[in-house]
Amino acid sequence: MFAAVLERSFKKHGRGDLEVESVGLNRESAGQPAAAEWEQLRELTGVDLSGHKSRCIDDLSWRELNQYDTVFCLDKKVHDELVGNRKWSAGRVKLLDIPNPWQQGVDAYRACYVTIEQLVETI
Protein backbone atom coordinates (compact mmCIF):
# COMPACT_ATOMS: atom_id res chain seq x y z
CA MET A 1 0.00 0.00 0.00
CA PHE A 2 2.79 2.43 0.86
CA ALA A 3 4.35 2.18 -2.60
CA ALA A 4 0.99 2.68 -4.34
CA VAL A 5 0.12 5.73 -2.24
CA LEU A 6 3.61 7.21 -2.67
CA GLU A 7 3.45 6.72 -6.44
CA ARG A 8 0.01 8.32 -6.55
CA SER A 9 1.32 11.30 -4.58
CA PHE A 10 4.31 11.71 -6.89
CA LYS A 11 2.00 11.78 -9.92
CA LYS A 12 -0.35 14.25 -8.21
CA HIS A 13 2.58 16.60 -7.60
CA GLY A 14 3.90 16.30 -11.17
CA ARG A 15 6.65 13.80 -10.36
CA GLY A 16 5.35 10.79 -12.26
CA ASP A 17 8.92 10.32 -13.51
CA LEU A 18 9.96 8.94 -10.11
CA GLU A 19 9.97 5.16 -9.87
CA VAL A 20 8.50 3.41 -6.85
CA GLU A 21 9.01 -0.27 -6.05
CA SER A 22 7.88 -2.46 -3.18
CA VAL A 23 9.97 -5.29 -1.75
CA GLY A 24 10.30 -7.00 1.61
CA LEU A 25 12.71 -9.24 3.47
CA ASN A 26 10.48 -12.28 3.92
CA ARG A 27 11.23 -14.85 1.23
CA GLU A 28 8.31 -17.04 2.33
CA SER A 29 5.77 -14.36 1.43
CA ALA A 30 7.24 -13.62 -2.00
CA GLY A 31 4.65 -14.00 -4.72
CA GLN A 32 1.72 -13.56 -2.35
CA PRO A 33 -1.09 -11.11 -3.10
CA ALA A 34 -1.80 -8.08 -0.95
CA ALA A 35 -3.72 -8.80 2.25
CA ALA A 36 -7.46 -9.19 1.71
CA GLU A 37 -8.07 -6.32 4.14
CA TRP A 38 -6.58 -3.90 1.61
CA GLU A 39 -9.16 -5.03 -0.93
CA GLN A 40 -11.90 -4.37 1.61
CA LEU A 41 -10.62 -0.79 1.88
CA ARG A 42 -10.30 -0.15 -1.87
CA GLU A 43 -13.21 2.30 -1.90
CA LEU A 44 -11.66 4.31 0.94
CA THR A 45 -8.12 4.26 -0.42
CA GLY A 46 -8.79 4.46 -4.13
CA VAL A 47 -5.96 1.97 -4.59
CA ASP A 48 -6.41 -1.30 -6.47
CA LEU A 49 -3.91 -3.87 -5.20
CA SER A 50 -5.60 -6.83 -6.89
CA GLY A 51 -2.57 -7.35 -9.16
CA HIS A 52 0.03 -6.91 -6.42
CA LYS A 53 2.45 -9.75 -5.71
CA SER A 54 4.97 -9.37 -2.91
CA ARG A 55 8.65 -9.59 -3.75
CA CYS A 56 11.73 -10.42 -1.72
CA ILE A 57 14.68 -8.04 -1.78
CA ASP A 58 16.98 -11.03 -2.29
CA ASP A 59 15.42 -11.60 -5.72
CA LEU A 60 16.76 -8.27 -6.98
CA SER A 61 20.29 -7.85 -8.28
CA TRP A 62 22.72 -5.43 -6.67
CA ARG A 63 22.44 -3.28 -9.82
CA GLU A 64 18.65 -3.13 -9.49
CA LEU A 65 18.90 -2.19 -5.83
CA ASN A 66 21.61 0.37 -6.40
CA GLN A 67 19.51 2.38 -8.86
CA TYR A 68 17.31 3.75 -6.07
CA ASP A 69 18.27 7.03 -4.46
CA THR A 70 16.14 6.47 -1.37
CA VAL A 71 14.81 3.36 0.32
CA PHE A 72 11.90 3.83 2.73
CA CYS A 73 11.65 1.18 5.43
CA LEU A 74 8.28 0.79 7.04
CA ASP A 75 9.67 -0.73 10.21
CA LYS A 76 12.84 -0.74 12.30
CA LYS A 77 13.59 -4.42 11.68
CA VAL A 78 13.93 -3.83 7.93
CA HIS A 79 15.90 -0.62 8.46
CA ASP A 80 18.33 -2.33 10.81
CA GLU A 81 18.77 -5.24 8.40
CA LEU A 82 19.62 -2.96 5.49
CA VAL A 83 21.86 -0.53 7.36
CA GLY A 84 23.39 -2.98 9.83
CA ASN A 85 23.71 -6.40 8.23
CA ARG A 86 23.67 -5.41 4.55
CA LYS A 87 25.75 -2.25 5.03
CA TRP A 88 23.55 0.11 3.03
CA SER A 89 24.23 3.79 3.45
CA ALA A 90 22.20 5.15 6.35
CA GLY A 91 21.74 8.34 4.31
CA ARG A 92 19.84 6.41 1.63
CA VAL A 93 17.71 4.34 3.98
CA LYS A 94 14.90 6.18 5.75
CA LEU A 95 12.90 4.70 8.61
CA LEU A 96 9.19 5.59 8.58
CA ASP A 97 8.13 3.20 11.36
CA ILE A 98 4.59 2.47 10.17
CA PRO A 99 2.72 -0.01 12.40
CA ASN A 100 2.24 -3.34 10.61
CA PRO A 101 -1.47 -4.21 10.45
CA TRP A 102 -0.85 -7.85 9.49
CA GLN A 103 -3.52 -10.16 10.94
CA GLN A 104 -4.99 -7.40 13.15
CA GLY A 105 -8.24 -6.86 11.26
CA VAL A 106 -9.55 -4.28 8.85
CA ASP A 107 -9.54 -1.45 11.42
CA ALA A 108 -5.76 -1.81 11.80
CA TYR A 109 -5.40 -1.62 8.01
CA ARG A 110 -7.58 1.49 7.92
CA ALA A 111 -5.40 3.13 10.60
CA CYS A 112 -2.29 2.08 8.68
CA TYR A 113 -3.64 3.69 5.51
CA VAL A 114 -4.31 6.97 7.34
CA THR A 115 -0.74 6.92 8.68
CA ILE A 116 0.63 6.23 5.20
CA GLU A 117 -1.38 9.09 3.70
CA GLN A 118 -0.04 11.49 6.33
CA LEU A 119 3.57 10.39 5.92
CA VAL A 120 3.50 10.45 2.13
CA GLU A 121 2.47 14.08 2.13
CA THR A 122 5.68 14.92 4.01
CA ILE A 123 7.98 13.20 1.49
Describe the structure.
The protein is globular. The chain has one domain: Response regulator (Rossmann fold, 3-Layer(aba) Sandwich). β1 (71-73), α5 and β2 form a beta-alpha-beta unit. It has a two-stranded parallel ribbon. α1 (2-12) runs parallel beside α6. It is built from 6 helices and 2 strands; from the N terminus they run ααααβαβα. The chain has helices spanning 2-12, 36-40, 42-45, 62-66, 76-85, 106-120, and strands at residues 71-73, 93-95. By secondary structure, the protein is mainly alpha-helical.
Short structural summary:
The chain is 41% helix and 5% strand. It has helices at residues 2-12, 36-40, 42-45, 62-66, 76-85, 106-120; strands spanning 71-73, 93-95.
Topology:
Blueprint: H1 2-12, H2 36-40, H3 42-45, H4 62-66, E1 71-73, H5 76-85, E2 93-95, H6 106-120
Parallel strand pairs: 1-2
Helix pairs in contact: 1-6
Main structural class: mainly alpha
Reported CATH architecture = 3-Layer(aba) Sandwich
> What is the number of strand segments?
2
Terminus-to-terminus distance: 15 Å
- How would a crystallographer describe the biggest sheet? 2 strands, parallel
Q: Could you give me the name of the CATH homologous superfamily? A: Response regulator
As for the number of domains, it is: 1
Strand content: under 5%
Helix content: 40-55%
Order of helices and strands: HHHHEHEH
Envelope shape: globular
CATH class: Alpha Beta
CATH fold-level label: Rossmann fold
Low-pLDDT residue intervals, each spanning 5 or more residues: none
